[in-house]
Amino acid sequence: QVQLVESGGGLVQAGGSLRLSCEASGRAFSSYNYGMGWFRQDPGREREFVAAISWSGAITYYADTVKGRFTISRDSAKNTAYLQMNNLKPEDTAVYYCAAQRGVALSRRMVDFSSWGQGTQVTVSS
Fold it and tell me: 61-107, pLDDT tens digit by residue?
């Protein structure tokens, strides 16, 4: 099993920045290659893809709505993935979830992510 713990959410004004962290643990995470991803969900809306990074860090994907503003990265030595969010907008307000998918291929689909964190709230005020 893989356990994921997010941190770094909070309240920020429009135009500001936040960095989310996701620390992974568990024997499986150390034994296999895992891609990491970030999703978000606002009340009343479906959970949506934000960004993903491959196990090696060589491949990244972004939703069009965050491209150019958000950057996903990972530190394999720390088993941690990051989401740097710049130029935040009120429409970025949501609960952000970290997720992990086993394997060398990288997918943006929720169904391909087998482990999920509890989420961290990001609120952007106008």
Answer: 999 999 999 999 999 999 999 999 999 999 999 999 999 999 988 99
37-to-42, 70, 117 alpha-carbon distances in Å: 17, 13, 11
CA distance linking residue 34 with residue 55, whole number of Å: 5
- Round to whole Å and give the CA distance between 29 and 5: 13
- Where b means 16+ CB within 10 Å and e means fewer, 57-90 reads eeeebbbeebeeebbbebeeeebbbbbebeebee
Cα-to-chain-centroid distance, residue 61? 11
In angstroms, the CA 48 to CA 90 distance is: 16
Tens digits of residue pLDDT in 39-70: 999 988 999 999 999 999 999 999 999 999 99
